[in-house]
Amino acid sequence: MKKDFKIYWTLFTSTFYLSAFTFGGGFVIVPLMKKKFVDDLNWIEEKEMLDLTAISQSSPGAIAVNASILIGYRIAGFLGSLVSIIGTILPPLIILSIVSIFYTKFRDNAAINALLKGMQAGVAAVIADVVISLGNSVIKGKNFISAIVMIGAFIATYFFKVNVIYIILACGLIGAISAYFRKKSDRSTNIE
Amino acid sequence: MIYIKLFWSFFQIGLFSIGGGYAAIPLIQNQVVEQNKWLRMTEFVDLITIAEMTPGPIAINSSTFVGTRIAGVGGAIISTFGCVLPSLIIVLTLAYFYYKYNKLTVVQGILGGLRPAVVSLIASAGLGITILALWGDSAATFNLSDINPIAAGLFIISFIIMRKFKPNPILVMVGSGIAGLLFYI
């Protein structure tokens, strides 16, 4: 029972921290979650983390919320997902309630703007670090199709601003087709 | 009943904002400004600015902001709950199928195709933030002379620290924020 409580508490504090430091929303939280749950706590494998990210991106709602629900569920079932969803929504709930009262003062405060601007550079560096690690492990896998998918998806999303839903559908289809042919060629070599 | 109205509006925002983040903005505008007239357009623009400056997803920030202004703390909680409920239901259903079928060859194949794509999506978001941090509002020009030297210095130092010492990323972000406070003012 004591151990259970510890898991829920770690889940709550981790999601609370991550949410409190995720500016701008969206994918920013994913590298931070990868650092926390894959590298520090060793609760989730790197591949599984990428799968969970794909599911959060394909579902409606905020990615940060969806990813927290998935991680909570993976670690401690339904109750875990409730704990991590509360951890994720509390920081914006508290901060926005306060800010909405003083919002013109907050918006024009030079110190707050300087602090946020400085943090932006730090956040960018953290994401760059995680992207390099993830990209390296795709390239080290020595799978030609994966490397092509990675480069193609980047060009499509960054330069051509293609809707993410189409990128996900296309890449899933490419994966399914290549798995089908790999299985077929495995079978024919077995027969020979 | 204002609570039911808030809940239902934000339930729809949560349900239809696929792709997260900026995809939610037009939906929020439609519900909050046009349909229910809870905010004027200028207040809505302020809301988006605040949502960008504070942590947390835009949809959650909007739920809290609108909920608080319309019906106090209770309104904020109801709106936020409405906003995350569709996610909770849909994501848990998908998670159930993922853990049940992720050993199948086809599913393995699909996931294998998605993983490198997800890396690219993160890279793309990261590059956007890096450019915003280094160039600020003149991001469109990419002139080397327009780079903010303080931001560039903070970025490079933070990056080297991350690669070499692998510290807790939050320490790097807070450190970088404090450095910003010292250098920008």
Can you describe this structure?
- The complex is a heterodimer of chains A (192) and B (185).
- With 192 residues, chain A is mainly alpha-helical.
- Chain A has a domain of 100 residues.
- In chain A, helix 1 packs antiparallel against helix 2, helix 1 crosses helix 4 and helix 2 packs across helix 6.
- Helix content of chain B is 80%, strand content 0%.
- Chain B is an all-alpha fold.
- Chain B has 7 helices and no strands.
- Chain B has 2 domains: 100 residues, no CATH class; 80 residues, no CATH class.
- The model of chain B has no long low-confidence stretch (mean pLDDT 85).
- In chain B, helix 2 packs across helix 4, helix 3 packs across helix 4 and helix 6 packs antiparallel against helix 7.
- Classes of the chains: A mainly alpha (192), B mainly alpha (185).
- Chains A and B meet through helix 1, helix 2, helix 3, helix 4 and helix 5 of A and helix 1, helix 3, helix 4, helix 5 and helix 6 of B.
Please give the structural blueprint:
The complex is a heterodimer of chains A (192) and B (185).
Chain A: H1 2-20, H2 29-40, H3 46-58, H4 63-101, H5 103-107, H6 110-140, H7 144-159, H8 164-191
Chain B: H1 2-16, H2 24-35, H3 41-53, H4 58-101, H5 105-135, H6 149-165, H7 169-184
Largest interface: A-B, 108 and 100 residues
- Oligomer status: heterodimer
* Structural class by sheet pairing and helices of chain A: mainly alpha
Query: How many strands, which pairing sense, and closed or not: the largest β-sheet of chain A?
Result: none
Strand content range of chain B: under 5%
